[in-house]
Structure formats: structure tokens, C-alpha cells
Design goal:
The protein is mainly α and 305 residues long. Helices cover 77% and strands 0% of the residues.
Length: 305
């Protein structure tokens, strides 16, 4: 029988592996309008999370959250941020820009550190500060040599960074948070879907079986890794969880190059090298900190891609 720590590793690696495979999954929905993919993801996520909540008798936690105005207002904001993050990611996959999205998720931890410093007044040790400077150099390299601001990776990192910042202030577990967030978005998603059906423009049932299945199953693909991650975070140290977070962007990076055959030039390589060095410095600094059982926000902030 697996120990709690080994079980946590299995849950964590599985969760991040699923997230890492998202580009490959949504690649098969390239022919579907990104707004429609987002709509179906919201609807089926809400339905699945509702079933899970009933099955594990989680309704009381949801009811308690629904009675707190501060919780609802916080989750209202976080729902908009995560919806924006999902939409940008889906669009990026459809446009063949998975490499850029992987860069966004590589720099997300560093963006989160900066946001915590700005809004929560958390201190920056020399390792975190050095990592942020190195990441900034990587981004500036792209700006100078490509002549454009890398808005796609920055928007992914900022939307998820602000999402994590908001969720850190909202005292609810992952399942409750996802249920309320998708519940807030549900009326808009349903209205949009019904209007598309009325106009004969909905792609849910008008395409082939594969498209219908992938759109519906996107709900399970959203909820399952989130719950696995929450279970892992309750069993692992902050350091272990921190290292596993790089599985997702690494798999996205490899998927973009080897499966989706996206071009990868020298300017991008230099930028990635700066980011990777920054992450090594960041991780080294985290290892030097006292080992913590579970990150404070681990069970509340991870609803990624």
C-alpha cells in the first residue's frame, strides 16, 4: 500500500501531466470557435462538479460559501480571471502558439511572486529578486529582437497570477471554488449556447462524434486534475508541489515542438534560457526555506488552463 507521501506524488504528477496534455487535447478542437469551446467547458465543468459535490456530500461547504458576501465577490472576480485565462489558452492552441503559452506558464510563478510583493507586501529574498530580474531580461529580449511585446505569455501569466492572488484571499476549497466560479459563469454560457442553437450556429452536436465528445469531456478534463492536485497538496511539502508545477509548461513546450511542430527560433531559445535559469534560481531559493507541510493557497488557487 502506498504511503500518504507517495500517494500525493502520484496524484500531483497525474494532475500536472493532464494539464500538460491540454494543448494536444484542444488541438483536436481547432475547428471549433474558441468562445464555443469555452462555453462548453464551463457548462460541463459545472455539471460534473455538481455531481461530484453531491456524491461526496460537499453541499454543506458550498452552501456555507454562498452565504458569505466576501466569498461571492471574490469568486466573482476570480471567475472572470480564470475564464479569460481559459479563453486565451484555447485561442493560443487554435492559432498554433502553444510555445508562447508554455512560456506564459513558465513565468507564472515569478509573476505571482511579484504580485504578492506589490499587493500583499510579501518580502522578496535575493533568490526571488534575481529570478524575477532574469525573467524580465528574457521577456525584454523577445521585445527587442522580435519587435513586439509578447502579450500572449504575459496575458496568461498575469491572468492566472491575479487569479491566484484573488483566490488566496478567499477561504474556500478547490471544489467549492470551482463550483461557484463555473456557477457564476453558467448563465452567460447557457444563454450563449442556446442563442447559438437557435441561430443554428452551435457546433456541439452539428459536427462529428469526436467533436461532441471532446467538447463534453472538457468538463471532466477541467475538474479531474484540480481535485487530484488538491489531494496531492494536502499530502506533500511546499517544495515538492513547487517542483511539480513545472511539469505542465515543460510538457506544453515539448508538445509544441515535437507533436505540433511549431517553429522555434534562436531568439525564443535565448528567452527561454533566461526563464529556465530564473526558475532554477527560484527553486533553489525555495529549497533553502524551511520545509512546509502544505502551501497556504495550494488547495484554493489551482484551476489552471
Amino acid at each position: 500500500m502506498l504511503s500518504q507521501q507517495k500517494l500525493g506524488l502520484v496524484y500531483g504528477v497525474t494532475a500536472y501531466t493532464i494539464w500538460g496534455l491540454f494543448p494536444w487535447y484542444f488541438h483536436f478542437l481547432n475547428h471549433v470557435n474558441p468562445w464555443q469551446v469555452l462555453t462548453q467547458r464551463i457548462i460541463w465543468s459545472f455539471l460534473l462538479v455538481s455531481v461530484i459535490a453531491l456524491f461526496i456530500h460537499h453541499a454543506s461547504s458550498i452552501k456555507a460559501a454562498m452565504t458569505q458576501r466576501k466569498v461571492i465577490s471574490g469568486l466573482l472576480l476570480s471567475s472572470l480571471l480564470i475564464a479569460a485565462n481559459w479563453l486565451i489558452f484555447i485561442w493560443a492552441v487554435g492559432q498554433g502558439r502553444v510555445l508562447e503559452s508554455s512560456l506564459g506558464y513558465f513565468i507564472t510563478p515569478l509573476v505571482s511572486v511579484l504580485l504578492a510583493r506589490i499587493f500583499l507586501k510579501e518580502s522578496l529574498d535575493r533568490y526571488r529578486l534575481s529570478a524575477c530580474i532574469l525573467a524580465l531580461i528574457g521577456v525584454l529580449w523577445l521585445v527587442i529582437h522580435l519587435g513586439v511585446l509578447p502579450w500572449l505569455p504575459l496575458s496568461l501569466a498575469l491572468s492566472f497570477g491575479f487569479y491566484g492572488l484573488v483566490r488566496k484571499k478567499v477561504p474556500v476549497d478547490s471544489l467549492t471554488g470551482l463550483w461557484v466560479e463555473t456557477g457564476i459563469l453558467l448563465p452567460f454560457a447557457l444563454s450563449w449556447w442556446l442563442w447559438l442553437e437557435w441561430q443554428g450556429q452551435s457546433q456541439l452536436f452539428s459536427e462529428n462524434f469526436q467533436t461532441t465528445f471532446l467538447l463534453i469531456f472538457s468538463g471532466a478534463l477541467t475538474a479531474a486534475p484540480l481535485l487530484l492536485f488538491a489531494s496531492a497538496a494536502n499530502r506533500l511539502s511546499l517544495t515538492a508541489v513547487g517542483f511539480m508545477m513545472y511539469i505542465n509548461p515543460t510538457m506544453q513546450f515539448l508538445t509544441a515542438i515535437y507533436l505540433l511542430k511549431e517553429p522555434f527560433n534562436h531568439q525564443q531559445l535565448v528567452a527561454f534560457i533566461f526563464i529556465w535559469i530564473a526558475l532554477v534560481v527560484f527553486s533553489f531559493g525555495a529549497m533553502r526555506q524551511p520545509n512546509a507541510k502544505t502551501p497556504v493557497h495550494a488547495t484554493t488557487t489551482d484551476s489552471r488552463v
